[in-house]
């Protein structure tokens, strides 16, 4: 059926035997993947208010899903890299509805089918002709992708509904500019010496700067801080990264966040924080921040490049396009968002002029077209990418 956003829960099966009906959602991926699925999860919550919404994903992301208010419980599930889990630890009666927010199939579709779910919502696949879902498109934004899936089945879904509330805990560095130099692949890591140059310029201009580190990134973050003349106390994170509530408080109450194409960028968007996001092997049209929010996406493809995926997001060295982003440009982007910077700028910015959030939500044009190989269901199933491990500042 071609859903128009009006059928909603009426088209899904109800609970069996008098029990509370269940919707099982598969999204066994990383931090950024979960955050880009928030609009779809919220649509499911509204569409099935009496159902238990169960998300199959890494247990380490329970705090993230809890912040959305859209998930009742986690079903701990994970697989190496971007693989589809071999099994789901589902027990008890089959779910009334299973929703595949993990990939394009067929592996993830079959995984959900094996639970005996009363119905399966997923993109159609040639290997599963009996499944009547919408067609997969490789050229749409990840938030829009999963909202379009749900709209096809009759649920209203808004890709701009990505906000999560800031926590009540205090920020460890209120008003600071937050630099996050980490990323899971070298192709998406802007050079540490450039982060240090940005940090040093901002520090000399009188701004407080902190550097965040995910698991295994402490030494690199400390080196950035030392090179910039920052105190070791301005490095936040340890072997387990930054605790989620503390991280959210830091970002939400920051002056600005400077980050590569990684999970922290999505978290900044979800919290409505000003952000400067640096892109290299993939276009910001794929998984970039909302264009109507207080964000700047910096990207410089070469003439003749593929317009969406010109590089290898899993490469081990910085992508050549990422290296075309200069220190002066980043400082200019920070200045354009905050009114303060640490040096001159001749920034070439690919974001729109910041506008106030509509209805308290970040952004107004979430559907930009495309997907991000570094993210979730946007890649064919079974391909490698970000690990879905602990809540990582660099995932």
From TrEMBL:
Region of interest called Disordered, as start-end residue ranges on this chain: 297-321, 336-395
Record's keyword terms, sorted: Glycosyltransferase, Transferase
Record keyword Amino-acid biosynthesis present: no
InterPro entries listed in its UniProt record: Glyco_trans_9 (IPR002201), LPS_LOS_Heptosyltrfase (IPR051199)
KW Heme (keyword) present: no
Biased composition range(s): Gly residues: 361-379
Signal peptide: none
SUPFAM superfamilies in the record: UDP-Glycosyltransferase/glycogen phosphorylase (SSF53756)
Protein name as it appears in the record: Glycosyltransferase family 9 protein
Biological source species: Streptomyces lateritius
